[in-house]
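[job 4471] stage=fold_predict status=RUNNING
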Amino acid sequence: MPGTMAEVLGIEILELTPDRVVATMPVNSATRQPMGLLHGGASVALAETVASIGSWKRIDDPTKQTAVGLEINANHLRSKREGIVTAVATPVHTGRKTMVWDIRITDEASKLICISRCTVAIVDIQV
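[job 4471] inference complete, writing structure tokens
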């Protein structure tokens, strides 16, 4: 995803289907807060990225509509200083105008780092 926040944060999409999106993100200088821990905002950016991409994948005609984050919440459950985190997003609701995704971010040992819920709006592309 050149030229995007995902590129800056090192987010890589590993799996993309209408029912599941999996992506990884390194814990490094780009994603850490000043105390050396994974920044909560980086986790939220990862969560919204997988939810938005998953919603986009479900749009009938992506030349006429796109997916944009409408609301997101996150609970940061465990800290992380280095390594890789993996986000797995699954749809909870898939409507015509909104979609809701459950996102679980884990470490290499499958320990839960963050849990998030993201509502995505499906909007018409303005030409």
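[job 4471] summary: The mean pLDDT is 97.
[job 4471] exit 0
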